[in-house]
Design brief:
The complex is a heterodimer of chains A (327) and B (250). Chain A is α/β, with parallel strands linked by helices. Chain A contains nine helices and 18 strands. Chain A folds into two domains: 171 residues, HUPs (Rossmann fold, 3-Layer(aba) Sandwich); 132 residues, 3-Layer(aba) Sandwich (Rossmann fold), CATH 3.40.50.1220. In chain A, the strands form four sheets. Chain A has a seven-stranded parallel β-sheet with strand order 7-11-6-1-4-5-12, with helices on both faces. Chain A has a five-stranded parallel β-sheet with strand order 15-14-16-17-18. Chain A has a three-stranded antiparallel β-sheet with strand order 8-9-10, with no helix packed on it. In chain A, helix 3 packs across helix 4 and helix 5 runs parallel beside helix 9. The longest helix of chain A is centred in the C-terminal third of the chain and has 18 residues. Chain B contains six helices and 13 strands. The longest helix of chain B is centred in the N-terminal third of the chain and has 17 residues. Classes of the chains: A alpha/beta (327), B alpha/beta (250).
């Protein structure tokens, strides 16, 4: 019972970065406890090609489901299949704390009556103890849990573990699907990337976020231009902005939106309401640009510029472009 | 159509939190409490369904000590028809144990659609709805931003990280509600008056087995104070230098 399972999420045939994070997390635990890492890779025809990357990140075995019925996320078939597999004996299982991961692991946990810790930022798994940290209360409080059951189920907060290469054999095995994967009640009929194919907020190393200080929706091009200058940036927004329809709800960062912690967060024309700070205060470096020098955003910012975003952003985009070109 | 909404009473997240002497809870002194944001959206969605149909009934359910009746009463004043308190006085941190009690209440009562918020804004676990569905053997669609219920079929949209999915399942079903569908309405005076006469049942909560323990709560490390680099666009070169040389993020 020392083996560790890692569920590696795919989407539209691609392996997601969080799918490497779970394998890396499982590898760290397996190295300490002397077990193997079994990575689960599920998707439509062709998905098995990603097995090599999972091996490179530390999977001893890659359990593959390659089937038309898994081209879109198939929650019920995956739940039945994973519950059967986990029942064969694992110490712990790692999933991503993504929309799909949360959906899947909660089903598996209830099906098997297992302890499940969600959105975990730190973990220790040994033969006799599983302890985790889980941020709550809009990231204002860290809750520390001890999980009783084996296997312990964990969903990993994006970025809690960074993918590390650590090559293992990665022997490919077909994972037998439990039940008829086409005869399910819950059907995902379409999966589509958001318009523009932009970097996702949860995965981008840099986030440029805009607030009411931009005055109107059209001025968000300034935020987008700065994101483009960085090249590795995603665009986010405050709730005020998404409520007004300037940006889609999926761009909202904050208590009721996305919780992010990029390497660099640039808050443009954002005053820093608690609602918003809850979603980004764990970013590594925070830059704030705001007209009002008393704005609460400056209390969490490492670097601030007091000024109108309309003036500052174009110059910043130019300077970043130059710095990137010179680097 | 018979609808049920599970709601949770949570502290106002704008508050400043202190850890209680026990080390495993927050100090509730001076905090305001209200319905968790997403549960408010779920209640709103359910009420709108019955308003549109001109028929149906919304039952709101909450687990906890008697103070949760306040939160239930608010949902009644928004337009829900009846409320159930699953009485349990001691704090419980195990989501599966709580979902087991909710599932026991929801079982065999003929609900067509059970709604929950995507997550409670305090514990942020995001699992209650899926737990309940699994325990009841019902289909579930979590974290939805659009919903259409017609002809016995639920059609929904879920936002993913940088993508979205369209999903469908037959009724009866469980859904959990994300941003984007509906904001909870403010109760009208008429609604508040009407809520006083609506039924509020109290039953003991039948919690499930405890699968994990909350060892302690901690406040995260404070961010070190930052600095103002300068004013206006003239400060940009210095900012870029700092990002490059000091923060090393450029």
């Amino acid at each position: 019972m020392t083996n560790i399972l890692a569920f590696s999420e795919t989407r539209l045939g691609d392996l997601r970065r969080c799918g490497l994070e779970t394998v890396t997390a499982a590898r760290t635990v397996a190295d300490a406890t002397g077990g193997q890492v079994h990575a689960v890779l599920a998707g439509g025809p062709g998905v098995a090609q990603h097995a090599a990357r999972l091996a490179a990140h530390g999977a001893d075995v890659v359990l593959v489901i390659e089937h038309d019925a898994f081209a879109n996320y198939n929650p019920e078939a995956l739940t039945a299949t994973l519950a059967a597999r986990l029942g064969s004996g694992y110490r712990a299982a790692f999933f991503a704390a993504s929309a799909q991961g949360h959906d899947l692991v909660a089903r598996v946990a209830a099906r098997m009556k297992l302890a499940y810790a969600s959105d975990v930022s730190e973990f220790t798994v040994t033969a006799d103890r599983v302890a985790v940290a889980h941020p709550g209360y809009t990231n204002k409080i860290v809750q520390r849990f001890v999980l009783n059951a084996t296997p312990a189920l964990i969903s990993l907060r994006a970025g809690a573990v960074l993918p590390v290469e650590h090559a293992k054999a990665g022997a490919v095995e077909a994972l037998a699907v439990v039940g008829d994967p086409s005869a399910v009640r819950v059907k995902v009929t379409l999966t589509e990337k958001a318009a523009g194919g932009k970097l996702d907020l949860g995965e981008a190393p840099v986030i440029i976020a805009g607030g009411r200080g931009l005055k109107e929706a059209a001025n968000f091009t300034l935020v987008e231009d700065l994101a483009a200058a960085f090249g590795n940036a995603a665009v986010g927004a405050t709730r005020a902005v998404t409520d007004d329809g300037w940006r889609p709800h999926s761009d909202q960062i904050g208590q009721t939106g996305r919780l992010v912690s990029p390497d660099l967060y640039v808050a443009c024309g954002i005053s820093g309401a608690i609602q918003h700070l809850a979603g980004m205060r764990t970013s590594k470096t925070i830059v704030a640009i705001n007209k009002d020098k008393e704005a609460p955003i400056f209390k969490v910012a490492d670097y601030g510029i007091v000024g109108d975003v309309m003036d500052v952003l174009p110059v910043l985009a130019e300077e970043v472009k130059k710095a990137k070109a010179g680097a | 159509m018979k609808l049920a909404v599970c709601i949770k009473r949570v502290p106002d997240m704008e508050g400043r939190f202190k850890i209680a002497a026990s080390g495993t809870g927050i100090d509730e002194a001076g905090l305001k409490f209200d319905m968790s944001d997403f549960d408010g959206y779920a209640a709103e969605v359910a009420i709108q369904i019955t308003e549109k149909l001109g028929a149906g009934e919304v039952t709101v359910i909450s687990l906890g000590p008697d103070v949760v009746q306040e939160t239930l009463r608010k949902a009644l004043s928004m337009g829900a028809h009846r409320a159930v308190q699953l009485k349990h006085d001691a704090p419980v941190s195990d989501g599966l144990a709580i979902a087991t009690a909710l599932a026991a209440e929801l079982k065999d009562r003929g609900y067509d659609l059970i709604l929950c918020g995507r997550m409670a804004v305090d514990t942020q676990n995001r699992s209650t709805g899926a737990f309940i569905a699994e325990l009841l053997g019902l289909p579930v669609i979590t974290a939805i931003s659009q919903l259409n219920v017609e002809g016995g079929v639920v059609r929904a949209r879920r936002e993913l990280e940088g993508a979205y999915e369209l999903i469908e399942c037959p009724l009866p079903a469980v859904v959990t509600i994300d941003e984007g569908i509906a904001r909870a309405r403010y109760p009208s005076l008429k609604g508040i008056m009407a809520a006083k006469k609506k039924p509020m049942d109290v039953r003991p909560a039948q919690l499930g087995a405890i699968t994990y323990q909350l060892e302690k709560m901690e406040l995260p490390a404070e961010r070190a104070a930052g600095r103002i680099v300068g004013e206006g666009k003239d400060a940009v070169p210095e900012l870029v230098r700092l990002l490059k040389e000091e923060a090393k993020v450029l």
